[in-house]
Amino acid sequence: MVRYFLRLAARNLWRRPRRTVLTFLAVAVGLWYFIFLDSFLQGLGRDSVRNLVELETSHVRIHAAGYWDKRDELPLDPLIERPRDIVRRVAAVPGVEGATPRLVFAAQLNNGVDELPVTAVGIDPQADGRVFSLEKYVVQGRWPQPHDEAMGPGVAQAMLGKAVAELMGLGVGDTFTLVTRTRSGAMQAIDLQVAGLLDSPHPGVNASTVYLPLQAAQLALGVGDAATEVDIRGTGEGHAAALQSEIEQTVGARAQPALSVHAWQAMAQDVLAMIQAERAYDMVFLALVFVIALVGVVNTVLLATLERTREIGTLKAMGMTTREIAGVFMAEAGLVGVLGGVTGVAAAMATEFWFVNYGLDLTPLLRDVDVGYPLSGVFTGAWNPVTMAGAFLFGVAVCLVASALPARRAARLDAAAALRNL
C-alpha cells in the first residue's frame, strides 16, 4: 500500500513539472546556501583558532601574578624573574611539546622620518619555533639569531611583519629604531637591523609586531633575565584546559600564587565570542530557509488540492479514507523535500570540495585589514557531514510539516460536493 501511495504521489508531482521544479529548487537553494555558510563559518573558526594559537597565544601561558589584569597595557612590572627555570620545569610535564620565554612591550618604530606604534616581542630564536610557527612565514631574509650583530656591537637583528615594513619603507638590511621605556621608566632607543620579513595569515602579526632577540630586549629594557610570559605548546587546542591544570600544579600557581596560568581560551575570549555570534546567525538563516520552504510547499499543495477537487471526490467515492488521501498529498510534499534535499546537498558537496581544497583568496580585497578575526589571505571551508545530513532531514521534515494542514483540508472535502465539480 505504501509503495502504491508513493507511485501515485510521484506521478502527481509531474502533472505540473514547472511548479514542482520551482518548489524543490527553492528548498535546494536554501539548503545549499545554509550548508555553504556553515562550512565557511566552521572554516573561519578553525583557522582563526589555529592562527591565534600558533602565532599569538600558544596553548597555555604563564604570567607573573598581577600581570593578567594589566596585560592590555603591556607593562614591564610584574615580570617572571627566572623564566628559564620555569621552562625547564614545565618541559617535564606530560603533553608539553615546547616552552619558551617572551618579553612583550610597547614601542614606537622610528625609521628616521616617521614613527609607528608597534608591539615589540623579545623571543628566544632557538626555542620560539617549538611553540610558535612564525618561522615558516618568513618570505624575505632569514630568522634572527641570538647573537647576530651583522651591523656591529649593539645592533641586533629583527623580524618585521611585511605590512609594517611596507608602511615604513623598510626592507631586509635596513636599520630602524625602537623607542620605548625601560623597566625603571627611562626612555630607551634600540637600534635594529631588518633580518627578514613575515607574511603570516594573522593580520596583527603582519601589521603591528616587531620580533627581536630576547637577550637584546632584556638588555635594553634593563630587566635582567626576566620575561613577561612563558608560552607553552601542548598536544592540541582541546587538551589546553587539562594541560593548564597540570602546569598550575607543577609551578605551584595554586599553592603559591606568584604565577598565573591561562589556557588559550581565556586569551581568545573576543574571538570565541565572535565565532559564537556567527553560529547564532547560522541558526537565523536556517529559520529563513524554513520559512521559504514552508511558503513554497504550502502554495504547491494548496494549488494541487484546488486543481484536483474532482479527483479527490472520485477517490473518496472509491473508498479511500480521509487519512489515505491526506497521506498521498503529504507523500508528494515529502518527495519534493527529498528532491530538494538531494539537489541541495549534492550542490553543496561540489561547492565545498572546491572551497575546502582551494579556498577563496581575499588578499586583494582585505590585504592586512583587521576584520576582527586573526585571519587573512585564503579563506577555506570545513567539511561537516553532520550538517549535510541534518540539512537533508530538515528539508524533508519542513516539507512534510508544511503540507500537513492543506493535505488535511483536501482530505476532508465532502465526496458529493467534490464530484459536483464534474
From TrEMBL:
Topology versus the membrane: Multi-pass membrane protein
Cellular location(s): Cell membrane
Transmembrane spans: 21-41, 283-304, 325-350, 382-405
Keyword entries, A-Z: Cell membrane, Membrane, Transmembrane, Transmembrane helix
Coiled coil: none
Residue ranges constituting the ABC3 transporter permease C-terminal domain according to the UniProt record: 283-413
Domain of life: Bacteria
Record domain MacB-like periplasmic core: where: 20-249
Family per similarity comment: Belongs to the ABC-4 integral membrane protein family. LolC/E subfamily.
Protein name listed in UniProt: FtsX-like permease family protein
Organism: Carboxydichorda subterranea
